[in-house]
Amino acid sequence: MNILIIKPSSLGDVVQALPVLKVLHERYPGAHIDWLVNEEIADILSGNPFLRTVHLWDRTSWRKPRLLPAAIRRTARLLRRLRRERYDLVLDLQGLLRSSLMARLSGGREIVGFADARELAPLFYHKKVRAPVAAMHSVERYILAVGGNPSRGRQFPIVFSAREKQSAERLFTQAKRDTARSLVVFVVGARWATKQWPPENFAALAEKLAASDGAQVALIGSQSEAPLACRIASTCGCAMMDFSGKTTLKQLAYLFQGAKVVVGNDSGPTHIAAAVGTPVVALYGPTSPVRTGPYGEQHTVLTTSLPCSPCFRRTCDQGTSCMTDISVESVYRACKPYLQKREHAVTQQRADRRAAPRHSENNRRKAATGRDPN
User: Do 105 and 91 meet the contact criterion of CB atoms below 8 Å apart?
Assistant: First the structure.
């Protein structure tokens, strides 16, 4: 059986759709599963054990009139490749007109999508899945769409090659990572300006974490967010590691694994951190953590109780107060328990190491004399 998943964007949505791979693998043993995704996101799917092929969709070319002829040719070649696969099942998890049209043009025998998809997309589906938008997390909606049980355990398969691990470790080395200090990573950017916590707040939080807890802070972001990270680093009174614009998505995921906690806006990298199991303190204002918050019980979401939040707006006539109202002190308090867990673990390990020789010596004496030396 051949299955195609159409979920080209955005990064956070693609990450939260990853559990459908395990569900499909269990429902259709031996099936070949492919994924259609935007080129700039494809890295997060590389090496995935459940995927056979990752088809690349070049969406950016369609936005530039001078590149339109080349974009049309590439899309035609892509559609020919998809039709050659003769897909038995095509899952449109994007739910837009262009994705549903791509699903129908792929020639799939059965096209499945959400009944409440936008832009008339359901017109192209053979089967429409009904799932509550407001009351259900996106991860569970995706699982329900592919016929899985949303209440069962979820897996986010992000696989690292030896080369990817080595390259990420080199980034740490070049940035002078101090392994004796707790690592806290800040996700400073977001696609919408309304979702961004003020940069001066990130700087103040870094100073507090460094002064009170001895933490080492790292900044991450895309190339376009590098100026924002530079602004935070330049106004902060403590040294910071700045990885903005310097990592692939897989390197970023590996770096997150070394952190004790990640503090971030509602953005794709924040969801990557949650997917690899790192605790997240997520800052939400115009979007809903119920629907798209970091998935899992080990995370903390901070938001404000303004009557207009969540508004799901990219612009705000209120001055983005829903984000500015989240105080530095509240974020610091949310980070503290994750750092204390690490400190307790280190203290316990040191105590165990000190006790180990004594226990070993006591056992040796007991074996030689037949009496407990204590």
Answer: no
